[in-house]
Design goal:
The chain folds into 2 domains: 103 residues, Jelly Rolls (Sandwich); 34 residues. The protein contains 1 helix and 8 strands. It has 165 residues and is α+β, with helices and mostly antiparallel strands. The chain has a 4-stranded antiparallel sheet with strand order 1-8-3-6, with no helix packed on it. The protein has a 4-stranded antiparallel sheet with strand order 2-7-4-5, with no helix packed on it.
């Protein structure tokens, strides 16, 4: 029986927020990364991008769970996406989940390599959501305040007598 065995020492195993990591993945070479939540971060946004359309599986799970083969993906607890060019996840820090692992692997039916980039973002876009909500509420309160001022300034218009035609 002829076989070959290849090992590669990965020195860039840990991920950080705002730092992108480029990698190659294939059906026979899966890549795993580890991310540890800093104490002041409650959740992160993970984005994996590639310029080609070759499918790969991106899997996010708790670091204390074992990493199995992709064929057993249904029995694990975590989240996965089959990605042609973009995959994204919102991952929340839970009390029992201080670290997460990201596993990227190729689809087994075709021999190929995929070049992709993974990056963690702090979800700063929620601040824009709060600004939009409070600006809308403020606009409605301003309209009601102006209407109330007009009503107080001209009480004869709003005295309750209506003329029917």
């Amino acid at each position: 029986i002829n076989y070959s065995f290849q090992l590669e020492n990965i020195t860039q195993f840990l991920l950080e927020t705002g730092v992108s990591r480029q990698f190659f993945v294939s059906p026979s070479i899966s890549i795993c990364y580890k991310f540890t939540f800093p104490p002041d971060i409650e959740h992160v946004f993970i984005e994996v991008r590639s310029n080609d359309q070759l499918c790969t599986i991106v899997y996010v799970q708790s670091f204390n769970c074992p990493v199995y083969d992709v064929s057993e993906i249904g029995v694990r607890q975590g989240h996965y996406q089959i990605m042609p060019s973009i995959a994204s996840f919102n991952v929340y820090h839970l009390n029992d989940q201080e670290q997460i692992i990201i596993q990227l692997t190729g689809i087994v039916d075709v021999q190929r390599h995929k070049n992709a980039t993974v990056i963690f973002y702090l979800p700063a876009n929620y601040n824009f959501l709060y600004i939009t909500i409070f600006a809308t509420i403020g606009l409605f309160l301003l309209i009601y305040f102006v209407a109330f001022r007009i009503m107080c300034k001209h009480p004869d218009i709003y005295s309750g007598t209506f003329m029917y035609v």
